[in-house]
Amino acid sequence: MTPRDVSGDDSRWSDLDRPPLNAAALRRGLVRDGGLWSGIEVVTGTGSTNSDLVARAAAGKAAEGAVLVAEEQTAGRGRLDRQWTAPPRSGLFFSVLLTPAEVPVARWGWLPLLTGVAVATGLSRAAGVDTALKWPNDLLVTVGGEERKAGGILAERAGEGGVVVGVGINVTLREDELPVPTAGSLALAGAVSTDRDPLLRAVLRSLEEWYERWRSAAGDPTVSGLQETYAAGCATLGRTVRAELPGDRSLVGEAVAVDGDGRLVIATEEGVQEPVGAGDIVHLRPA
To answer: Quick one: what percent of the chain has pLDDT higher than 70?
Structure first.
């Protein structure tokens, strides 16, 4: 789907509680000489910011630090090709292009986990909401004593030297707008602010800080502090989980660690510790 502008008389875009993002102010606040962010574009609507930015990168039309933000996504994707939908201007839906040439490709798998740490850190500062990370890439908030998913992250290769990382965060969704009962939003979690401009600035600044730290350490998750910080904020660790693995296999046990490759280590009742690098994780009981 091609990015589009929508005329002001469209009733879906007249919600005064959901003002549009200020692209010019975002650029002034984030794009600077020597910084990571090279350009910020806000489009009214598109299918998927990830798909758009991957295509631009493949065509040589995007540089590292390009940020593409959509007020509405109609074909947003999560892991395992799940759909991600939300009303216009109700969240933050954006993708960034990263080209970590200094980091061995074997360590690029840390990028979605790094983004999770950055998003959680930025939202904690700007929204005042306690967040947790569900391995590998879900952002959790607490609504009415229940754990709910308020965001997700999807990383995709963009040619030989790049990665596009997409982020979706539910900001002002009301209970009757949630796509599924297990979803949540920052507003439902009691955020002190749901102004998307400062929230996006905080998240992108946090992502820049963590990315530079990780890149300066050649992607080493220990030296950069990423592995320790991710583990500290990961709600999956210490819980009994079921991993739905490729090939219709499942594994039940306690999530005991995130290893140096970013994999979740599950200890089974048989005493075996098995690292899981891909799969769907279900939390079976609280820690």
So the answer is: 91
DSSP category for residue 65: T
Q: Under DSSP, is residue 121 helix (H, G, I), strand (E, B) or coil?
A: helix
DSSP code at position 234: B
Mean pLDDT for the chain overall: 92
Nearest alpha-carbon partner for 273 in 260, 249, 256, 285 = 256
Work out the widest C-alpha separation in the chain, in whole angstroms: 63
Token readout for 200 is 């996006």
| Helices first, then strands: H and E counts in the chain | 5, 14
**What distances in angstroms separate CA 147 from CA 65, 134, 179, 189, 258, one per listed residue?**
33, 10, 15, 10, 21
Among residues 142, 118, 169, 166, which one has the least CA distance to residue 235? Answer: 142
- Number of C-alpha atoms within 13 angstroms, CB side, residue 83? 8
Report residue 94 as tokens.
């954006």
Q: How far is CA 185 from CA 31, 80, 91, 247, in A?
A: 28, 22, 9, 33
pLDDT digits (tens, 9 = 90+) for 156-210: 999 889 999 999 999 999 999 999 999 999 999 999 999 999 999 999 999 999 9
Number of CB atoms found within 10 A of residue 213's CB: 15
What CA–CA distance (Å, rounded) separates 123 from 194? 10
Bridge partners, 245 (sequence order): 249
With 60 as the cut, is the pLDDT of residue 7 above it?
A: no
Number of Cα atoms under 13 Å in the Cβ half of residue 139: 32
Query: How remote is the C-alpha of 109 from its chain's centroid?
Result: 14
* Strand pairing category for 39-43 and 66-70: parallel
What pLDDT was estimated at residue 16? 67
